[in-house]
Protein backbone atom coordinates (compact mmCIF):
# COMPACT_ATOMS: atom_id res chain seq x y z
CA UNK A 1 0.00 0.00 0.00
CA UNK A 2 1.31 3.42 -1.00
CA UNK A 3 0.63 6.65 0.85
CA UNK A 4 -0.97 8.04 -2.30
CA UNK A 5 -3.47 5.15 -2.32
CA UNK A 6 -4.34 5.83 1.31
CA UNK A 7 -4.91 9.52 0.59
CA UNK A 8 -7.07 8.63 -2.40
CA UNK A 9 -9.11 6.23 -0.26
CA UNK A 10 -9.71 8.85 2.46
CA UNK A 11 -10.76 11.42 -0.16
CA UNK A 12 -13.30 8.97 -1.64
CA UNK A 13 -14.73 8.20 1.79
CA UNK A 14 -15.11 11.85 2.71
CA UNK A 15 -16.57 12.82 -0.69
CA UNK A 16 -18.86 9.72 -0.67
CA UNK A 17 -18.25 9.55 -4.42
CA UNK A 18 -15.47 8.61 -6.81
CA UNK A 19 -16.36 11.46 -9.16
CA UNK A 20 -16.42 14.17 -6.47
CA UNK A 21 -13.16 12.84 -5.00
CA UNK A 22 -11.55 12.92 -8.45
CA UNK A 23 -12.61 16.56 -8.87
CA UNK A 24 -11.21 17.55 -5.48
CA UNK A 25 -7.91 15.75 -6.13
CA UNK A 26 -7.61 16.87 -9.76
CA UNK A 27 -7.13 13.32 -10.99
CA UNK A 28 -9.29 11.27 -13.32
CA UNK A 29 -11.98 8.95 -11.97
CA UNK A 30 -10.38 5.87 -13.62
CA UNK A 31 -7.17 6.68 -11.71
CA UNK A 32 -9.06 6.41 -8.41
CA UNK A 33 -10.94 3.29 -9.45
CA UNK A 34 -7.75 1.48 -10.48
CA UNK A 35 -5.98 2.54 -7.27
CA UNK A 36 -8.80 1.15 -5.08
CA UNK A 37 -8.94 -2.08 -7.07
CA UNK A 38 -5.21 -2.60 -6.48
CA UNK A 39 -5.64 -1.88 -2.77
CA UNK A 40 -8.48 -4.38 -2.42
CA UNK A 41 -6.53 -6.99 -4.37
CA UNK A 42 -3.41 -6.50 -2.24
CA UNK A 43 -5.25 -7.25 1.02
CA UNK A 44 -7.94 -9.50 -0.47
CA UNK A 45 -10.69 -7.36 1.07
CA UNK A 46 -13.61 -5.23 -0.03
CA UNK A 47 -13.51 -1.59 1.02
CA UNK A 48 -16.89 -0.31 -0.22
CA UNK A 49 -20.43 -1.54 -0.74
CA UNK A 50 -22.68 0.23 -3.22
CA UNK A 51 -26.09 1.21 -1.81
CA UNK A 52 -28.98 3.43 -2.96
CA UNK A 53 -27.47 6.12 -0.73
CA UNK A 54 -24.07 5.87 -2.41
CA UNK A 55 -20.82 4.31 -1.23
CA UNK A 56 -20.86 2.60 2.16
CA UNK A 57 -17.76 1.44 4.01
CA UNK A 58 -17.35 -2.23 4.85
CA UNK A 59 -15.93 -3.16 8.27
CA UNK A 60 -12.48 -3.43 6.68
CA UNK A 61 -12.96 -0.08 4.98
CA UNK A 62 -14.00 1.59 8.24
CA UNK A 63 -10.94 0.18 10.03
CA UNK A 64 -8.66 1.48 7.27
CA UNK A 65 -10.33 4.90 7.29
CA UNK A 66 -10.23 5.43 11.06
CA UNK A 67 -6.59 4.41 11.33
CA UNK A 68 -5.53 5.83 7.98
CA UNK A 69 -6.47 9.40 8.90
CA UNK A 70 -3.95 9.39 11.73
CA UNK A 71 -1.29 7.79 9.55
CA UNK A 72 -1.72 10.42 6.83
CA UNK A 73 -1.70 13.24 9.40
CA UNK A 74 1.55 11.96 10.93
CA UNK A 75 3.10 11.36 7.52
CA UNK A 76 2.29 14.91 6.33
CA UNK A 77 3.68 16.33 9.58
CA UNK A 78 6.87 14.32 9.12
CA UNK A 79 7.31 15.43 5.50
CA UNK A 80 6.67 19.09 6.31
CA UNK A 81 9.04 18.95 9.27
CA UNK A 82 11.82 17.40 7.19
CA UNK A 83 11.33 20.02 4.48
CA UNK A 84 11.63 22.74 7.11
CA UNK A 85 15.08 21.40 8.05
CA UNK A 86 16.50 22.17 4.62
CA UNK A 87 19.07 24.92 4.81
CA UNK A 88 20.47 25.38 1.33
CA UNK A 89 18.44 23.41 -1.19
CA UNK A 90 15.07 24.46 -2.51
CA UNK A 91 12.55 22.62 -4.61
CA UNK A 92 12.03 24.47 -7.87
CA UNK A 93 8.76 24.56 -9.82
CA UNK A 94 7.76 26.39 -12.99
CA UNK A 95 4.09 27.36 -13.24
CA UNK A 96 2.53 28.37 -16.55
CA UNK A 97 -0.13 31.08 -16.48
CA UNK A 98 -2.14 33.03 -19.01
CA UNK A 99 -2.52 36.77 -18.49
CA UNK A 100 -6.09 36.26 -17.31
CA UNK A 101 -5.34 33.40 -14.91
CA UNK A 102 -2.44 35.42 -13.46
CA UNK A 103 -4.80 38.29 -12.67
CA UNK A 104 -7.63 36.09 -11.38
CA UNK A 105 -5.54 33.73 -9.23
CA UNK A 106 -2.62 35.93 -8.15
CA UNK A 107 -3.93 36.27 -4.59
CA UNK A 108 -3.98 32.47 -4.17
CA UNK A 109 -0.63 32.02 -5.92
CA UNK A 110 0.99 34.70 -3.75
CA UNK A 111 -0.34 32.95 -0.63
CA UNK A 112 1.00 29.62 -1.90
CA UNK A 113 4.46 31.18 -2.40
CA UNK A 114 4.34 32.79 1.06
CA UNK A 115 3.43 29.45 2.66
CA UNK A 116 6.19 27.55 0.83
CA UNK A 117 9.40 29.42 1.53
CA UNK A 118 11.35 26.24 0.76
CA UNK A 119 10.06 26.24 -2.82
CA UNK A 120 11.50 28.41 -5.56
CA UNK A 121 8.58 29.38 -7.81
CA UNK A 122 8.93 30.70 -11.35
CA UNK A 123 5.79 32.06 -13.01
CA UNK A 124 5.88 31.80 -16.80
CA UNK A 125 3.25 33.75 -18.72
CA UNK A 126 2.01 32.99 -22.23
CA UNK A 127 -1.08 31.85 -24.11
CA UNK A 128 -2.70 28.50 -23.35
CA UNK A 129 -1.84 27.04 -26.76
CA UNK A 130 1.84 27.87 -26.31
CA UNK A 131 1.90 26.80 -22.64
CA UNK A 132 0.48 23.38 -23.49
CA UNK A 133 3.41 22.83 -25.85
CA UNK A 134 5.88 24.11 -23.25
CA UNK A 135 4.40 21.67 -20.74
CA UNK A 136 4.68 18.77 -23.19
CA UNK A 137 8.31 19.75 -23.88
CA UNK A 138 9.18 19.92 -20.17
CA UNK A 139 9.70 23.68 -20.10
CA UNK A 140 7.12 24.13 -17.31
CA UNK A 141 5.91 21.73 -14.61
CA UNK A 142 2.18 22.52 -14.52
CA UNK A 143 -0.13 25.44 -15.10
CA UNK A 144 -3.57 27.03 -15.12
CA UNK A 145 -4.59 26.82 -18.77
CA UNK A 146 -7.70 26.81 -20.91
CA UNK A 147 -9.25 24.09 -23.00
CA UNK A 148 -9.29 22.61 -25.61
CA UNK A 149 -6.56 20.06 -25.00
CA UNK A 150 -4.14 20.06 -27.94
CA UNK A 151 -1.14 18.11 -26.60
CA UNK A 152 -1.69 14.33 -26.19
CA UNK A 153 1.11 13.91 -23.62
CA UNK A 154 -0.55 16.15 -21.04
CA UNK A 155 -3.81 16.06 -19.11
CA UNK A 156 -5.98 19.07 -18.40
CA UNK A 157 -8.29 18.65 -15.42
CA UNK A 158 -11.13 21.20 -15.27
CA UNK A 159 -11.46 23.57 -12.34
CA UNK A 160 -14.73 22.82 -10.59
CA UNK A 161 -16.33 24.03 -7.39
CA UNK A 162 -14.33 27.27 -7.55
CA UNK A 163 -15.50 30.82 -8.25
CA UNK A 164 -13.70 30.80 -11.60
CA UNK A 165 -14.17 27.84 -13.95
CA UNK A 166 -13.62 29.46 -17.35
CA UNK A 167 -14.03 32.60 -19.42
CA UNK A 168 -16.52 33.98 -21.94
CA UNK A 169 -15.62 35.57 -25.26
CA UNK A 170 -16.53 39.09 -26.35
CA UNK A 171 -16.05 40.93 -29.61
CA UNK A 172 -14.56 44.29 -28.60
CA UNK A 173 -15.05 47.21 -30.98
CA UNK A 174 -15.22 51.01 -31.03
CA UNK A 175 -18.56 52.28 -29.74
CA UNK A 176 -19.04 53.92 -33.14
CA UNK A 177 -19.16 50.50 -34.86
CA UNK A 178 -22.58 49.72 -36.35
CA UNK A 179 -22.64 46.40 -34.41
CA UNK A 180 -21.86 47.92 -31.02
CA UNK A 181 -25.48 48.05 -29.83
CA UNK A 182 -26.15 44.37 -30.58
CA UNK A 183 -26.93 41.92 -27.76
CA UNK A 184 -24.50 39.50 -29.46
CA UNK A 185 -22.69 39.05 -32.76
CA UNK A 186 -21.72 35.99 -34.80
CA UNK A 187 -18.79 35.44 -37.13
CA UNK A 188 -21.20 35.79 -40.03
CA UNK A 189 -22.03 39.29 -38.77
CA UNK A 190 -18.30 40.10 -38.69
CA UNK A 191 -17.37 39.00 -42.21
CA UNK A 192 -16.95 42.59 -43.45
CA UNK A 193 -15.05 43.85 -40.39
CA UNK A 194 -11.34 44.60 -40.05
CA UNK A 195 -9.71 42.40 -37.39
CA UNK A 196 -6.81 42.72 -35.03
CA UNK A 197 -5.91 39.61 -33.05
CA UNK A 198 -3.90 37.74 -30.47
CA UNK A 199 -1.31 35.38 -31.96
CA UNK A 200 -1.68 31.61 -32.35
CA UNK A 201 -0.02 31.19 -28.94
CA UNK A 202 -3.50 31.96 -27.59
CA UNK A 203 -6.70 29.96 -28.01
CA UNK A 204 -8.57 33.07 -29.19
CA UNK A 205 -5.84 33.77 -31.73
CA UNK A 206 -6.38 30.28 -33.15
CA UNK A 207 -10.15 30.78 -33.12
CA UNK A 208 -9.85 34.07 -35.01
CA UNK A 209 -7.61 32.50 -37.64
CA UNK A 210 -9.78 29.39 -38.08
CA UNK A 211 -13.00 31.35 -38.45
CA UNK A 212 -11.39 33.90 -40.74
CA UNK A 213 -10.63 31.14 -43.25
CA UNK A 214 -14.07 29.60 -42.79
CA UNK A 215 -15.91 32.88 -43.44
CA UNK A 216 -13.41 34.33 -45.91
CA UNK A 217 -12.04 37.32 -44.03
CA UNK A 218 -8.49 36.05 -43.38
CA UNK A 219 -7.03 38.94 -45.41
CA UNK A 220 -8.83 41.36 -43.06
CA UNK A 221 -6.59 40.55 -40.06
CA UNK A 222 -4.31 43.59 -40.15
CA UNK A 223 -2.48 43.47 -36.80
CA UNK A 224 -1.38 40.64 -34.48
CA UNK A 225 -0.22 41.40 -30.94
CA UNK A 226 -0.12 39.44 -27.65
CA UNK A 227 -0.51 42.43 -25.31
CA UNK A 228 -4.27 42.80 -24.82
CA UNK A 229 -3.89 46.39 -23.67
CA UNK A 230 -2.13 47.30 -26.93
CA UNK A 231 -4.91 45.60 -28.88
CA UNK A 232 -7.60 47.59 -27.07
CA UNK A 233 -5.78 50.89 -27.60
CA UNK A 234 -5.39 50.04 -31.31
CA UNK A 235 -9.06 49.40 -32.07
CA UNK A 236 -10.01 52.97 -32.95
CA UNK A 237 -6.86 53.52 -35.03
CA UNK A 238 -7.61 50.46 -37.15
CA UNK A 239 -11.41 50.83 -36.90
CA UNK A 240 -11.30 47.13 -36.10
CA UNK A 241 -12.70 44.40 -33.85
CA UNK A 242 -10.90 41.88 -31.64
CA UNK A 243 -11.85 38.70 -29.76
CA UNK A 244 -10.92 38.82 -26.06
CA UNK A 245 -12.05 37.19 -22.81
CA UNK A 246 -15.07 39.13 -21.52
CA UNK A 247 -13.49 39.05 -18.05
CA UNK A 248 -10.79 41.50 -19.21
CA UNK A 249 -13.43 44.24 -19.22
CA UNK A 250 -13.31 44.68 -15.43
CA UNK A 251 -9.55 45.30 -15.64
CA UNK A 252 -9.77 47.88 -18.45
CA UNK A 253 -10.77 51.53 -18.57
CA UNK A 254 -10.17 52.27 -22.27
CA UNK A 255 -12.90 54.75 -23.32
CA UNK A 256 -15.33 54.46 -26.23
CA UNK A 257 -15.28 50.67 -26.55
CA UNK A 258 -18.15 48.18 -26.61
CA UNK A 259 -17.85 44.59 -25.42
CA UNK A 260 -20.42 42.50 -27.32
CA UNK A 261 -20.83 38.78 -26.45
CA UNK A 262 -19.78 36.39 -29.22
CA UNK A 263 -22.60 34.19 -30.51
CA UNK A 264 -20.81 30.95 -31.33
CA UNK A 265 -20.32 27.44 -29.95
CA UNK A 266 -16.77 28.54 -29.05
CA UNK A 267 -17.90 31.48 -26.91
CA UNK A 268 -16.85 29.85 -23.62
CA UNK A 269 -13.51 28.30 -22.65
CA UNK A 270 -13.25 26.17 -19.49
CA UNK A 271 -9.95 26.35 -17.62
CA UNK A 272 -8.12 23.70 -15.63
CA UNK A 273 -4.92 22.48 -14.07
CA UNK A 274 -2.57 21.04 -16.68
CA UNK A 275 0.28 18.60 -16.08
CA UNK A 276 2.18 15.94 -18.00
CA UNK A 277 0.67 12.47 -17.81
CA UNK A 278 4.00 11.07 -16.59
CA UNK A 279 4.42 13.71 -13.88
CA UNK A 280 5.29 12.42 -10.41
CA UNK A 281 2.70 14.14 -8.21
CA UNK A 282 4.34 15.79 -5.20
CA UNK A 283 3.01 17.33 -1.98
CA UNK A 284 3.93 20.73 -3.43
CA UNK A 285 1.60 20.11 -6.38
CA UNK A 286 -1.25 19.17 -4.04
CA UNK A 287 -0.61 22.28 -1.93
CA UNK A 288 -0.81 24.40 -5.08
CA UNK A 289 -4.13 22.77 -5.99
CA UNK A 290 -5.51 23.45 -2.52
CA UNK A 291 -4.45 27.10 -2.77
CA UNK A 292 -6.14 27.55 -6.17
CA UNK A 293 -9.37 25.96 -4.93
CA UNK A 294 -9.70 28.78 -2.37
CA UNK A 295 -10.53 31.23 -5.17
Task: Give structural notes.
By secondary structure, this protein is of the alpha/beta class. The chain folds into three domains: about 5-85, Winged helix-like DNA-binding domain superfamily/Winged helix DNA-binding domain (Arc Repressor Mutant, subunit A, Orthogonal Bundle); about 90-165 and about 270-290, 3-Layer(aba) Sandwich (D-Maltodextrin-Binding Protein, domain 2), CATH 3.40.190.10; about 165-265, D-Maltodextrin-Binding Protein, domain 2, CATH 3.40.190.290. It has nine helices and twelve strands. The protein has helices spanning about 5-15, 20-25, 30-45, 60-85, 100-115, 130-135, 205-215, 230-240, 285-290; strands at about 50, 55, 90-95, 120-125, 140-145, 155-160, 165-175, 195, 220-225, 240-245, 255-260, 270-275. Strands 3, 4, 5, 6, 7, 8, 9, 10, 11 and 12 form a ten-stranded mixed sheet that branches. A two-stranded antiparallel sheet has the order 1-2. Helix 1 crosses helix 2, helix 1 crosses helix 4 (about 60-85) and helix 5 packs across helix 9. The protein is elongated and about 70 Å long. The protein starts with a helix and ends with a helix. Keywords: DNA-binding, Transcription, Transcription regulation. Belongs to the LysR transcriptional regulatory family.
Amino acid sequence: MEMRQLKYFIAIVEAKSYSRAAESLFVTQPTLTLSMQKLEKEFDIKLFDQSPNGLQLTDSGMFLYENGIEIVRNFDYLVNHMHSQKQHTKESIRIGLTVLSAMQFMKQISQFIANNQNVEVRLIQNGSHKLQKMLADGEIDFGILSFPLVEPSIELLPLKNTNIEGYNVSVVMPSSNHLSDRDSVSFKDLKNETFISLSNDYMLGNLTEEQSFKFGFNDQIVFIEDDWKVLLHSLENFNAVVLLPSEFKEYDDTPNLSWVPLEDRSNYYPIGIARRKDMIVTDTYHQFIEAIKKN
